[in-house]
Write the structure tokens for this entry.
Amino acid sequence: MEQKAQDARLDEALEQSFPASDPVAINVPTANSTVKSLFAADSTVKEDTSMNKYKVGYLVGSLASTSINRRLANALVRIAPEALEFEEIPIRDLPLYSSDYDADFPPEARAFKDAISRSHAILFVTPEYNRSIPGALKNAIDWGSRPWGKNSFARKPSAVIGTSPGSIGTAVAQQNLRSVLSFLNAPQMNSPEAYITFTTDLITIDGEVTNPSTEEFLRSYIEAFHDFIAKVLTVLPHDVS
Ligand code: FNR
């Protein structure tokens, strides 16, 4: 077939899939009007979500009193837009998970799941241990995922970040964590990624970032997370309790 004719047929097929006269994609869930505007061709009708307020629960993967990842978490909380309200969800006191608990979770595990439930989104700030995530963090995630059918992470917008003195800054641990979150059906912010190589005093205990370019990067990262939460919750709205 001649190239021109092929192009015309392709145009026709595309036209039928997404008619130009109707900028709203067919079969998109229309739980609220914002969904429509996300798909509208005219960008001027998009809803401005930049001021939407969200509660972010964050997990620090380290139990160390001198944790550099806690410093990183403190920095993100300091730098974040006001529209994000943070609550640390502690993992330290959780017993080791066993399915024996499924019929009756202990108070620490109930509190942990409740804290996830009242968060719009979850931020993971984790070290890398032996090219994976620390056992304490994996244990916490296992608690959150159970009992079967009550996975607290399902549909929760999530983001991962971490720091280590190594040059790849927790990249391998983060990939491991991403695969766990995929299985748990937690929508993840894919980009930007954030692998922070920690150098002496890069971030103070109170979360002050001493390197301006790192601070700028962390600001753009956490602003991107705000945007991501807004997008996910527009398409997958859920109440927090
Ligand atoms: C580490 N560390 C480390 N670092 C890294 O970049 N890749 C790795 O695989 C590991 N593995 C590892 C295993 C164990 C058991 C420990 C204790 C440490 C070093 C690690 O990045 C460093 O100790 C950080 O300071 C840990 O983060 P927190 O606990 O200070 O937040």
Notes: Residues 212-235 form the longest helix (24 residues). The CA atoms of residues 66 and 205 lie 9 Å apart. The radius of gyration is 21 Å.
